[in-house]
Each structure stands twice: as structure tokens, then as C-alpha cells.
Specification:
By secondary structure, the protein is α/β, with parallel strands linked by helices. The protein is built from eleven helices and nine strands. Helix 1 packs across helix 5.
């Protein structure tokens, strides 16, 4: 008797990945399951597939990026996509062209996927309304960074088998962090208990409404946590005085071996990068392979983005 063909939750939904908030639990789990299948491939000697051969991917990065841009670039090429990364520093936008004009220009080239990172919240959503292809959000303003949250989830699952029941602390510049928002949505969705830790000046108002517990005391916030997720200080988004000094920030909110002791004995640490060593995190701790998952996050980021490209590209 023939077995029933598995139905994709994603194939039956809108073709864009704009944020975790737009995903169902089934869709998030499908992406993570698909990504798992690419981990072994990426560690092997032959990494190239032809799943998306003949498709075209355009990377539009309006903000500087090393990890995310190179990860999407590599993910596309490993799936057989023709990848074009646009240099936005020399683009027509510098001459006064609007994002909508750019969208119309790109749409005329008939791409299959556009990956966009933009400094303005909502830019990927606007772009998705103006083009006939898949749009994947690679980070927009303070709003969301869905693939970062998905790769963080995959990294945790790869070590802990499951996220359900875990206690996860997200510490640092919560106010300006799209990574924090996407992770709060996803970790809650997958059954974790989430603590957020930040100085009052970097804690958003009403954050508790997102189903988290907020702390301004790092030791209390880390108590009993399985995962400690540190965040980069978003200095480029800060206008005015948010911190007395970097030294004082490190003293109260930088992750050190002493502070990590307040978490569980086998707690693991994460950071989306780039890290400000000696400000957000102790250097030795960041490089401790027994504790730090930072390099694993980078590695599994390629697998997650391959999964997203495969599942969302129609």
C-alpha cells in the first residue's frame, strides 16, 4: 500500500518569510526539520545540490553584514541557485531612488527570491507587496530577524534535543534588538520559559506582554537557566545616553564565568555576533568550546538558510 505524501505546511501559506510572528508552530518545526537534513551535507566533502537549479536569488543588504549575508550567499549556491549580491553602497538608492522603485526594477529581472536586510522596520513587508517572487527578511530595523532565531533554535535542539521545558535567558540590548524579538516569539512558541535581562534604559516598555519575565539584575535573571543568549549593544541605533560607560555595563551586564555560575551547571552560552569582547562577554568564556555555541551558530546558520530557500522558493 502506498504511503501518503507528506503535505508541507509552508507550501500552503504565503510565500514570504517576513518574521517569526507570522509563522505557525507547524511551519517553524518544518523549517527546523528541513534544516537538520542539511547539517550532514554541509559537513561532508560534497556540499552541492541542484534542488533549486535555474532559480535566481538577489541579496539586498542595506546594512553591513558578514555572517548573515555570506550565509545566505553560501546557502543559495549550495542549492544550485544563481546568486547575485547587490552593492547597495553604489546603488541608485544613493541617487534618490526609493525602495519601491528598486523593487520594480528588480521585479523586471524576474528573480525567484529576494533576501533583504534593511534599517527600517517593515521594509521587507513593503517589498513583498511590490514583487512577484519570494521575499525573505534578513533583518529589518528593530522588528525581526527570523532566520537568526531559527538558527538559534536549531543550535539549541542540536545540543539539548528539544527546546520545550528549557529556561532561556536573553541578556543585553533588548530595546534595539530584532534578534531578541524573534527569539522571544520562537522560544515561547516551542515551549521554553524566557527571561530577558537588561538595564532599565535598554528594556522595552511592556516587554512582559510578550510572555517573558524581565530582570534588571543579571544574577536573578540567570538563575536556573539552561541557555544564556547574549546580545550585541546596538550602538548605531542609540541616540542619546543609554549607558554610563562600557566598563560599567560589563560589570553589571557582561557575561563572566562568575555570573554564569548563577545559571545551571551545564548551561550553554550563545551570541548572534559580532561580539564586543570585554563589554558583552568575557573573551575566555566566548572561546570556551565546552560552554560556547557561537561557532556552532554560524555553522548551522547555513543549514537553516538552505532550508528557508528550499521551502519558500516556489
Amino acid at each position: 500500500m502506498a504511503t501518503a505524501k507528506k503535505v508541507s505546511a509552508i507550501k500552503n501559506t504565503p510565500k514570504h518569510l517576513l518574521g517569526i510572528q507570522n509563522l505557525s508552530v507547524l511551519e517553524a518545526k518544518e523549517i527546523l526539520t528541513e534544516a537538520k537534513s542539511f547539517i550532514k551535507l554541509n559537513r561532508g566533502s560534497s556540499k552541492k545540490l541542484d534542488i533549486l537549479r535555474g532559480k535566481t536569488q538577489i541579496n539586498l543588504f542595506f546594512e553591513p553584514s558578514t555572517r548573515t549575508q555570506s550565509s545566505f550567499d553560501l546557502a543559495g549556491k549550495r542549492l544550485g541557485v544563481d546568486v547575485m549580491t547587490m552593492n547597495m553602497g553604489n546603488s541608485a538608492l544613493k541617487k534618490g531612488e526609493t525602495l519601491i522603485d528598486t523593487a520594480m526594477t528588480l521585479n523586471a529581472m524576474h528573480p525567484d527570491i529576494i533576501v533583504i536586510r534593511h534599517q527600517d522596520s517593515g521594509a521587507p513587508n513593503l517589498l513583498s507587496q511590490k514583487v512577484n517572487c519570494t521575499v525573505i527578511n534578513a533583518g529589518d530595523g528593530r522588528r525581526e530577524h527570523p532566520t537568526q532565531a531559527l538558527l538559534d533554535a536549531l543550535t539549541i535542539i542540536n545540543r539539548k534535543d528539544s527546546i520545550e521545558g528549557l529556561k532561556i535567558a536573553i541578556c543585553g540590548d533588548i530595546l534595539h534588538s530584532r534578534v531578541a524579538r524573534s527569539n522571544i516569539y520562537l522560544m515561547n512558541m516551542l515551549g521554553a520559559e524566557v527571561n530577558v535581562i537588561a538595564p532599565k534604559t535598554l528594556m522595552p516598555r511592556g516587554i512582559d506582554n510578550l510572555g517573558v519575565k524581565s530582570f534588571t539584575d543579571m544574577k536573578k535573571g540567570l538563575d536556573g537557566c539552561d541557555i544564556v543568549m547574549m546580545l550585541r549593544l546596538q550602538n548605531e541605533r542609540m541616540q542619546g545616553s543609554f549607558l554610563p560607560s562600557k566598563r560599567e555595563y560589563y560589570e553589571f551586564f557582561g557575561l563572566t564565568p562568575e555570573k554564569l555560575k548563577f545559571a545551571k551547571k551545564d548551561a550553554l552560552l550563545m551570541h548572534p555576533g559580532p561580539m564586543n569582547r570585554g563589554v558583552e562577554i568575557d573573551t575566555k568564556l566566548a572561546d570556551d568550546i565546552n560552554v560556547s555555541l557561537v561557532k556552532e551558530q554560524v555553522e548551522l546558520g547555513v543549514a537553516v538558510r538552505m532550508a528557508c530557500l528550499k521551502l519558500y522558493c516556489k
